[in-house]
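pls read this stuff:
=====
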Amino acid sequence: MSTHARPLADWLAAASDDDLRRLFTARRVRPDAAWQDFFDAAEALLDPASLAKVLPALTAAEARALTDTTSGASAGALQERLTALALLRPDGTPYPPVTAAIAGRPTPEPVTDRPVPPRSSDAASAHAAERAFTTVAVLADLLLIARERPFALLTGGGVNAGEKRQLTEAGVPGELVDTLASIALQAGLAVSADRRLRSSRSAEEWLRSSAVDRWSVLARSFRDALPRGIRSADGGWIPPESWLDAHPWDQGWPERSETLHDAARLLGLIAEDGTEPEWAAALRSGDAAETDALARLLPAEVDRIFLQNDLTAIAPGPLEPALDVRLRTIAARESAAQASSYRFTAESVAHAFATGETEQSILDFLGTLSLTGIPQPLSYLIAQTAQRHGLVRVSTDEETGRTRIESTDGHLIDTMAVDQSLRPLALTAHVGSLTTRVGRDTVYWALTDARYPATLVGSDGALLVRERHPAPASEAAHADASDLSPLIDRLRSHQGPDADAAWLDRELEAAVRTKSVLQVTVGMPDGSTRELLLEATGMGGGRLRGRDRAADVERTLPVSSIRAATIVAP
């Protein structure tokens, strides 16, 4: 039991619920923390392990101010902030455990203002704009892939090497995957659940936005998610040259600072020569993004394509995002550059039908998009795929609850019955169809993977459209999981009127557990007090038992008569 926890417990009890919520959030307190009262909270917040987590998060100015207080100096303007983090007492002096925790840590250098980077030249701005455009496009590719096939993540949050190799083959540079994933997560365009990265629901709207609007979302979210150490007072960021020194007690900060620099360069917020493009100045100052200068340097988007007889499509420039996203549900993109190419295959068109497209909707879309009409080979491919679509129907038998597979083509039923890739489904022949205990959606996707023209059918016979990996709810929907109100309410419920008596009980119980020697002040019947040096041995029934060091006898003292108790030695 730390005697230093008592002043902090008193401060916590007197703090408002909002102050406690901010403190617990900053100190990364879990909502399910097993604290019963403010004494538990104070002890936990002053525990070396807890301090080891919060100290690296301090900015350079906060770390220096905290170090100064250990030598008797004032924390100045940062005293209120450090007190709110439970590192300083209200009088501005550090708690002894805090002093011990920062002993041996390097003393941060005085914080000095550095000049903002100079404005980029025309050439540097053009290169930064090109890089921002490329980043936005590649991130869109990443999200489209993640929508169909979520990525497996490592324990630390990065994408594993196997996934990176596959992404590289799909045109996403492997060395940029982790940075791009971080940008997407910050912007809420991707979510991490069950150690897999998946595009979020908000990503669907973002994917269909213009390149400038896409960039604005990414740049704004990047700024808003920057660590406190590099955020400026006006809501922007400090000069990038100062980022490396922002968190001097965080051993992982140099690597993280470099990652943030890389992300800023990818987004065109910092030019390759370290200068600042025109469109980044407003964001750095905490204002809304000014996109006109960026838009002037971006390639013009097109809304038409050339459809060719070899079942390919050529876009003579960057295709408008909304059109690109829809076209890529029908055709596989083969190359991405100023002129992108797409290829139609039976599988890609079947994928479009599975997402809800029809033969007519595809023809209408391509007809409005094409500068060359719809070639006959493509029309034939779409019609042929439409005829096969729905040839295998997957439904649930309402009587048995089993999944039923039906088809007007008996040969397909016979083929599926002996298909070795479908053995895990344990298909059973039943009156011209196949049945299984496996769930309907699982059967549907297994058949789709095996390239059977399967469709889902509801109880009313209507065709159903399913997403294979539905986007999980946004993180905001999980806000209740981090709600600290129940914890604060529990602490308040154990906040009794006699804090002194409660604290004394805790001190005595802790002394008994550790067999400590106590300096006890006992109130006598005549109103006087007496000092005893006791080796605490037990406590129960409102009485403390211990051996009197001076008289070498066992004593039993009513706890109600003890005025004060201090641990002398364990």
Summary: Residues 5-102 form one domain. Confidence is low (pLDDT under 50) at residues 474-481.
